[in-house]
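Worked example

This section walks through a single chain of length 213. The input is the sequence exactly as stored; nothing has been trimmed or padded.
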Amino acid sequence: MNIEVFTFNPFSENTYLIYDDKGTGVVLDPGCMDKAEYDELEDAVRARNIRIQEIILTHAHIDHIFGCARLCQTYGVGLAMHPDDEFLFARAEEMSRVFGLPLVPPPAPSRHFSHGEIYTIGDIGLHIRHTPGHSPGSVSFVNEEAGIIIGGDVLFRNSIGRTDLPGGNTDVLLKSIREQFFIYPDHFRILSGHGPETTIGHEKKHNPFLQQM
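Given that input, the structure is written out below as tokens.
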């Protein structure tokens, strides 16, 4: 599994390009919102001769969906997400105006993720875990073979996702971390929606929000 990270938009959101060795790939959480950011991502796709099969989301907050409309059109592909976050699409333009940022409304999802399914990207299999709390429809993607969790805004290095946005719930978020993240070994890497990567073991020992767990 090949993973490249790009940090985009004023929220410093991490967008992931994931692809197998044969060149089949996806863009996860496309936060690109201006020409320079689109060019950076699209140049990488072109240089590696990647065939984008779909745009996929960990969740639907605006900083993770700015690029959905353009990339779906550019690559002629659909969008996949968990249905519990669709209400955020309806509020996306409103929320972007609050921050004074442009957002082209994303297309309606072409399909929905469900907890426990295996999502395939060519030769790669990602186990989908429903991890609500930051948002109702947050999902995380796990590759056990590589020891990687791509978790969106659920868990950060020494922090957790905010829960003061619509649909957020701290107790639910902590339950997701305990039951969907901490079931994996300490060496598993967590690739987050913002900031540097971390590991399960580091967060168990050092995350101040999780010491009571």
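What to look for: Residues 68 and 106 are 5 Å apart (CA to CA).
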